[in-house]
């Protein structure tokens, strides 16, 4: 524990965090220089501005990572809600002293803990799929899941700079919705025996004769025209709806070999034609590494190379199947396999801001005491989270998405949402009344602003 505590307080780790906070505050990358660092404070200078940041005591740091930290609520930069800070015996968030700005609460430590996924790195608690659970996280223990607290701290810095530095003019970043789509299933009807099994399961589950007859007709049509399969058509529907609403989707295709949790579907000519249509529509293609790849670089690399070779495209985007991730090695493995941006960091069992931010960031490599080269684009909401885990009604799910988007927009982040192609057929009402309604409303608001 003592070794890991020291890794939370290295000079590199602290400067990494400050640089990220200032990037959001300024709206562009800046290069702060260190003036001094003690156990209690760090002083930096950036673009002629000197800022002194408070660092909490070691005892408070230990309480924080154990989920026992005493937090104090302060207003967000725009008084939208209250946000937590590590409690200190002070009343003013900041003050100006001797030509520098002094921030009296430690906004560095919690930011680094969240960005580095320290709790996931050090916890052994996992669900049945070997995933870190929301209930075991610090964002759960401190009720942060609907608060991008790292971004909120950055915007408090922006507010201070606007108040105290006459020459400070931040660059504003527009918020965008980034639809992402994990293609777990290319085909609803894939082979005779699989199709019969699918129909039998549907008959037991739905108990609707007309629906079953419709499914049988769709199966027969698919046997003759494979490209007419409903799951394959779902992919086409997704990119068309993104194009219609001025959005740019990322499609994650699988090349995993068949297993208990992987379909193992081949990338045939129908799929290659669909990939070309996706690319022509200015959408992005990525890899969805299979269930058993998150700790196995050999299997991961084999799948990524297979997609690169089959599609004849450079594959630099990835999201792990089932959101399975080992914080100790998966980032490094993805990086070694040529992935530039990962989209996995989100909870399967709860929507919200797992890493405390709605901005892309470089995860931290504790072994090398420096950030990885790979970028993380944190996931905010997934269809299965809303339907399966949270069991929301459609109205409630839309309300949740709308609220999270409002919060994301306030901090100029990116709203990354995941909707699967197979769920268009399986949950048509959800697709239309939740997903399409959400992205269409966003598009309409954007048009009204132009």
Overview of the structural elements:
With 450 residues, the protein is of the alpha/beta class. The chain contains 17 helices and 17 strands. β13 and β14 form a beta hairpin. α8 (192-206) runs antiparallel to α9 and α15 (394-410) runs parallel beside α17. The longest helix is centred in the C-terminal third of the chain and has 22 residues, at 428-449. The mean pLDDT is 92.
- Share of residues in strands: 15-25%
Low-confidence stretches: none
Helix content: 40-55%
What is the end-to-end distance? 53 Å
How many distinct helices? Answer: 17
Blueprint of the fold:
Elements: H1 2-7, H2 11-26, E1 33-37, E2 41-46, E3 49-54, H3 58-65, E4 71-75, E5 82-86, E6 94-97, E7 100-103, H4 108-115, H5 118-122, H6 138-141, H7 149-164, E8 176-183, H8 192-206, H9 209-224, H10 230-244, E9 250-253, H11 269-280, E10 284-287, H12 297-311, E11 317-318, H13 330-336, E12 341-342, E13 364-365, E14 370-371, E15 375-376, E16 381-382, H14 383-389, H15 394-410, E17 414-418, H16 422-426, H17 428-449
Parallel strand pairs: 3-7, 8-9, 8-17, 9-10, 11-12, 12-15, 16-17
Antiparallel strand pairs: 1-2, 2-3, 4-5, 6-7, 13-14
């Amino acid at each position: 524990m003592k070794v890991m505590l020291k890794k939370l307080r290295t000079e590199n780790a602290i400067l990494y965090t400050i640089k990220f906070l200032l990037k959001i505050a300024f709206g562009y990358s800046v290069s702060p220089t260190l003036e001094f660092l003690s156990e209690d404070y760090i002083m930096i200078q950036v673009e002629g501005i000197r800022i002194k940041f408070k660092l909490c005591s070691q005892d408070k740091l230990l309480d924080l990572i154990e989920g026992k930290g005493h937090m104090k609520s302060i207003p967000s930069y725009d008084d939208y809600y209250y946000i937590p800070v590590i409690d200190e015996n002070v009343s003013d968030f900041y003050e100006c002293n001797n030509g520098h700005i002094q921030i009296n609460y430690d906004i560095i430590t919690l930011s680094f803990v969240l960005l580095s996924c320290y709790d996931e790195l050090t916890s052994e608690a996992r669900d049945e799929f070997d995933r870190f659970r929301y209930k075991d996280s610090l964002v759960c223990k401190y009720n942060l899941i609907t608060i991008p607290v790292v971004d909120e701290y950055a915007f408090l810095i922006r507010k201070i700079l606007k108040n105290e530095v006459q020459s400070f003019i931040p660059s504003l970043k527009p918020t965008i919705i980034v639809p992402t789509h994990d293609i777990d299933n290319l085909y609803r009807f894939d082979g005779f025996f699989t199709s019969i099994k699918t129909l039998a399961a549907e008959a037991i589950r739905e108990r609707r004769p007309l629906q079953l007859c419709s499914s049988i007709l769709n199966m027969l049509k698919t046997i003759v025209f494979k490209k007419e399969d409903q799951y394959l058509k779902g992919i086409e529907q997704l990119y068309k709806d993104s194009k219609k609403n001025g959005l740019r989707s990322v499609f994650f295709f699988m090349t995993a070999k068949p297993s208990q949790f992987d379909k193992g579907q081949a990338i045939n000519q129908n799929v290659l034609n669909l990939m070309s249509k996706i690319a022509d529509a200015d959408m992005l293609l990525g890899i969805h590494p299979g269930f058993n790849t998150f700790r196995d670089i050999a299997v991961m690399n084999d799948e990524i190379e297979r997609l690169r070779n089959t599609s004849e495209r450079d594959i630099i985007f990835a999201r792990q199947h089932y959101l399975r991730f080992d914080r100790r090695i998966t980032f490094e493995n993805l990086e070694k396999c040529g992935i530039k941006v990962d989209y996995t960091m989100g909870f399967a069992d709860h929507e919200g801001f797992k890493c405390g931010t709605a901005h892309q960031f470089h995860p931290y490599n504790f072994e090398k005491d420096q950030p990885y080269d790979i970028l993380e684009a944190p996931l905010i909401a997934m269809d299965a989270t809303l339907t399966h885990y949270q069991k929301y009604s459609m109205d409630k799910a839309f309300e949740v998405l709308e609220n999270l988007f409002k919060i994301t927009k306030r901090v100029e982040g990116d709203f990354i949402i995941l909707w699967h192609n197979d769920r268009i057929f399986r949950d048509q009402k959800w697709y239309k009344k939740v997903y399409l309604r959400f992205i269409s409303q966003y598009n309409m608001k954007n048009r009204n602003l132009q």
